[in-house]
């Protein structure tokens, strides 16, 4: 089956949205780290309603949740491509996968620090 580009602007954008939603679904049902991070995002959002955080705190919190999930999605894509290209262990593939995982770690650590900055004052008071 040959790929055919859709030249209709609106139809092409709608197809892109469908592909993106398929990707979100695949991430949520197959990747345990995404399942956990998505669940944490929901829990922290519930905490936001409970503590009645400010509009700016909501903006930053939402950005952090999106950042972590996005970077995790990219990490998963890198891992899948690497495994497809070289299914057996290879030192260079391991190096690439470690770097991608490190990016997720930076994003998650940043989100944790921001979460603490937002919520610790609410918890203490």
Automatic annotation (TrEMBL):
It comes from Flavobacterium piscinae. GO terms for biological process: phospholipid biosynthetic process. It is a multi-pass membrane protein. A divalent metal cation binds at residues 31, 79. Its cofactor is Mg(2+). Belongs to the bacterial diacylglycerol kinase family. It is found in: Cell membrane. This is Diacylglycerol kinase family protein. InterPro entries: DAGK, DAGK_sf, UDPK. Gene3D superfamilies: 1.10.287.3610. One of its GO terms (molecular function) is metal ion binding. The chain crosses the membrane at residues 34-53, 99-124. The keyword Ion transport does not apply. ATP binds at residues 19, 31, 79, 97-98. The active site is at 72 (proton acceptor). One of its GO terms (cellular component) is plasma membrane. Keywords: ATP-binding, Cell membrane, Kinase, Lipid biosynthesis, Lipid metabolism, Magnesium, Membrane, Metal-binding, Nucleotide-binding, Phospholipid biosynthesis, Phospholipid metabolism, Transferase, Transmembrane, Transmembrane helix. Coiled coil: none annotated. Mn(2+), Zn(2+), Cd(2+) and Co(2+) support activity to lesser extents. Substrate binds at residue 72.
